[in-house]
Amino acid sequence: MSPSPLSRRTVLGAAVPTALALSATPSWGRPNALPGGGDLGPNVLVFDPSTPDIQAKLDAVFAQQESAQFGTGRYALLFKPGTYHGLNAQLGFYTSIAGLGLSPDDTTINGDVTVDAGWFGGNATQNFWRSAENLALVPANGTNRWAVAQAAPFRRMHVRGGLNLSPTGYGWASGGYIADSRIDGQIGPYSQQQWYTRDSAIGSWLNGVWNMVFSGVEGAPAQSFPNPPYTTLDTTPVSREKPFLYLSGSEYRVFLPSLRTNARGVTWGNGTPRGTSLPLSRFYVAKPGVSAATLNQALTQGLHLLLTPGIYHVDRPIQVNRANTVVLGLGYATLVPDNGVTALKVADVDGVRLAGFLVDAGPVNSASLLEVGPSGAWRDHSANPTTVQDVFLRIGGAGPGKATTSMVVNNRHTIVDHTWVWRADHGEGVGWETNRADYGVVVNGSDVLATGLFVEHFNKYDVQWFGERGRTIFFQNEKAYDAPNQAAIQNGAVKGYAAYRVGEAVTTHEGWGLGSYCYYNVDPTIVQHHGFAAPNRPGVRFHDLLVVSLGGNGQYEHVINETGAATSGTSTVPSTVVSYP
User: Fold this and answer.
1) Which of 251, 478, 504, 510 is catalytic?
2) Gene3D superfamilies recorded for this chain (predicted)?
3) Which of 51, 145, 544, 550 could hold 11 in an S-S bridge, CB 3.0 to 4.6 Å?
């Protein structure tokens, strides 16, 4: 889409865990056994302080990736522990930068890790699919710029200065996510419409536009929604940080952070972080072109999966059947399901960790793209839940894609920590029926927690939640732009499908900081009855809800059920509900 004012959102430790060690024994003795470990491939660039021409190498990757929104390039930029001087790592699409220490402070860049929007005329609303992790930054001018939109996590970072979340010129911005990070100075969101910060420490926070949510953040502004629009929880009920690659001497290992309850602040502030680690030899290091059969053979042997940067076509589901299995992607490794299969399925087992990859729907409709647990899953995983972190799902954009439902969560106690589930509104293969996708996320399992849930543009419901005792902290949604007319979204007697629906049988559910926007640009006369639908009972509770009509392109009649004022005219002013019921 063009960057005109009517384009997208422009209105504005060290041991293997005992359970893991006993859960499966790799079949090293089999003649056809796959090896663990190995090199990380050509698209993982590893630097140390003595590496020559680091800046030139960073610039070369950026030149290729800056505007390659739907390209095939995938890169991970990894920095060994040490101190680096005078660098500016500009990040384009499908580019991850990370330190290889056990703590962010092990790897210090005297310089910047920059995301800006020059490629898109100063509009940052399409700065997707990139990340920064596990580094300390000393910004050249005192403030680092990180002007991102969805699917661009800032994790386990230490900024010894400030952080500016807007593009140069303070153009449109629609992000974003920070976790397990320490920002010594001020965070300035400026034009950012919404943001979620979890389990971090910040010097101060400057302002808010529509929806700024904090949980477990030292230094966060006080609860004050809707003016200023701050939703602040003192702690995060349950969290477990994303696995990460690091160096122990010259050996690559993957660190697995421990589960925390009522979490607050960073995990790495005082000494060695809590958790365990695995040597790279326990991973099948996958390269693009490998078959799903080979990936499944590796998993059956008892290996974990490390997906190096690239695109992987799978003609059958990747089956994660063993407790405590890790599937970790580098540089936005991308799974494409062929012939309508589901890309990845998880069994009803403890402790699976899915992290750091993209699932891109194929042209033949998939019933689902990702299934966390089988239908009817019932086991208690409270002590060791599955985590889904920085796993992003896309239907269309890079080409025709279809999926009836993108993500299905059946396993109890699953933590979905930062996802963007997106039916594309621009790019290739985009149209009301061309990239048909009725449902974004369906939660059937009980006791599921979502922290940082971004789900957009589905033909029907974006989120449906049928499990008991579900909780969501921060939700960002846009209804599908391209509905051709009112009839196309009619839901029986109801005008439109809610962005977030809690099933009628649910007795307990809670959400904090949830927003839905409409931008019906094909037919601006479309009316959406409400953004949120839920049974009206005391155990189903919501805090700090908003709906917004972007420039009057469509309207909401209510916020949740029959509650909340209608949006009005072209003013792009949120209609809010502070507490429901």
Assistant:
1) 478
2) Single-stranded right-handed beta-helix, Pectin lyase-like
3) 550
